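Students often ask why we bother encoding 3D structure as a string. The short answer is that it lets us treat folding as translation between two languages. Here is a chain of 231 residues written in the first language.
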Amino acid sequence: MKKMKLLLVLALFSWTSGIFGQADLESLVETIKSNLSQSKNNIRQYEWIETTKAFVKGELKSTKQYQCYYSVDGKLTKVETGGTVESKTPGGIRGRVAENKKDDMMEYISKAGDEISAYLPPEPDKIQQIYASGKVGIQILEPNKIFQLSFPDYIKQGDVLSVTIDNVNQKLKAFSITTYIDDPSEKVIFDVTLLDLPDGTQFLSKVSLVAEAKNLKIDLQNSGYKKANGQ
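And here it is in the second language, the structure alphabet:
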């Protein structure tokens, strides 16, 4: 019986070793880098609407809306639209205390927004650096099709960027990031859903950021994509 179990373990190890072979891992990394680079270039032809909602303890505190496009010099430009709404605070002493707390939270929300921008979309060069260091992890979500690759220390020590890839269709499906903003003990997690435009360009459809220590959730949605004027 022990001999049979050992043979099964060895067979399983041999099978998984084939799946996680260096050539296979390298191919997946190259697919990720290629998709990121292509979509990064193609998305510059578009303009879209970004809507961000911030919830504290489940209560909607602010809604910000921007028209987004890339300027001639290649920089992402965001113009605030009429869809931006801030929650009101009461008057008097209670109002001043609430206003101070609101200011602190809005500062944290602003930092959280900067964090999203820092990680998304991921940079192919950073992906390559982590792969070259030999630290990439891999998980099978659907045999021979869906894989999740983990890239630790993507920006900060202890953070993790995970990329889910459909290897059959050569498409990225989702991103997941575990990081922190001010305090490494206060984890921040955000999950990203990707969708395709008609020309195959992939874009960040939805971003959901959760900071449990702050009772904060931020939902970001990009919509209304269309070719920018002159494209």
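Translate back mentally: Residues 2-227 form one domain. Keep this in mind for the problem set.
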